[in-house]
Design goal:
about 30% strand; binds flavin-adenine dinucleotide; about 140 residues; alpha+beta; 4 helices; Alpha-Beta Plaits
């Protein structure tokens, strides 16, 4: 079985609010667990960035459904590669939001005045999510 990692960025539509995000997370956590998919979803009030990792056919199937979802648009693939290890093995879908605790990470990956995931390279996108997740894990420990 082939394992892959997929990272994309997208822009929220007017159909998306906090309740919608809660609903997305609830569905994702159930469906991803059933499909052996792990990952994280980052959001910053306008944009999403998501990493999905798991069996190739399952990741592709979920991504096809995500692309059709009207709660976001301009879905752009940032990374798609085979992977031997998972970056987020403990999260069926971790949720990362911009906050005071991770402002430093956000600034590190901000080129102009505003964070723009569409400008990130594949490795920057991956490193960004890994660093944001590390901050979240630290917060959860305290
Ligand atoms: P259905 O509910 O029958 O969906 C049919 C189609 O309608 C799908 O294409 C779906 O995308 C779309 N859709 C469903 N509900 C809505 C709604 N309220 N508004 C607009 N369109 C809708 N799902 C996962 O399983 N795993 C994930 O990791 C995941 N991440 C997501 C990240 C983002 C940013 C978004 C926007 C959605 C995400 N989803 C995820 C949800 C996913 O798009 C589907 O809604 C969900 O998987 C159920 O799809 P379905 O085809 O099984 O069912």
């Amino acid at each position: 079985m082939r394992f892959v990692r997929l990272i994309y960025a997208s822009r929220m539509t007017e159909d998306c609010d906090l309740d919608a995000i809660q609903a997305i997370l609830a569905v994702s956590r159930t469906k991803n667990k059933e499909r052996d998919i792990t990952g994280v979803l980052f959001y910053d009030s306008l944009m999403f960035m998501q990493c999905l990792e798991g069996p190739r056919s399952n990741v592709n199937e979920v991504y096809r459904s995500i692309i059709r979802d009207k709660r976001h648009r301009k879905v752009q693939l940032l990374e798609y590669c085979e992977a031997t290890d998972r970056l987020f093995p403990d999260w069926a879908m971790g949720f990362l939001g911009a906050s005071d605790g991770n402002r430093e990470v956000l600034e590190k990956y901000t080129e102009a005045s505003k964070f723009d995931p569409y400008r990130l390279t594949a490795s920057q996108a991956r490193d960004f999510l890994v660093e944001m997740a590390a901050r979240k894990r630290d917060t959860l420990k305290t």
